[in-house]
Structure prediction request, 195 residues.
Amino acid sequence: MYLGFQSFKDLREFGRTTAQIRKDQYRQRYKNTSVEAMLANIRFISKNEFDQNQFLEQVNVAADMIHQAKRLVFIGALFPLSLSLDMAEDLLNTGKAVIYNQLFTDFDIRRFEKGALIIIPTLTGNFIPANVPGFLDQVKSFPLLFLSKREIRKIPCQQFNLIQLPNLNQSNQSNLILLETYNLIKYMYFNKYIC
Prediction:
């Protein structure tokens, strides 16, 4: 017995079938949507104008960074991390390893192998690298992806990308924009590299 299967071959076949079912689900989910529809949702929620071309370029770079990474490491406060669970699950199903590291708990990213992408969702922009002792020294050899409402100055690292979210004062709408931005990143990633 192997985890409830009669043989390892059965377990492996179940894994392959499950992966194919998930890919079919991704195709179906994204067949009925578009970049324009997602941008319209973000505009509606934010009620603010923003540079859509720049935003799309930042999202496109994020999709490329995810593709190039062997492992994704989400770092941040508990709530912004929880908003990334759906994205993490979908990326796990495409073969990406995903790790969560809440800020100020065992913060030592040097333990991650080269090829890891550090993703930092910070709605308020209050994640200040100077607040984490040794952060700047630790991230030099990793690519960084920030998702934030506020501008974050470029940090010396392997590759830096900031997805500047439309600025809002109300946190519930900011949460929705972050979720829709994750959907847009997944949409671009799946269409370019998976489906």
The longest strand covers residues 116-122. The two ends are 34 Å apart (CA to CA). The chain has a mean pLDDT of 82.
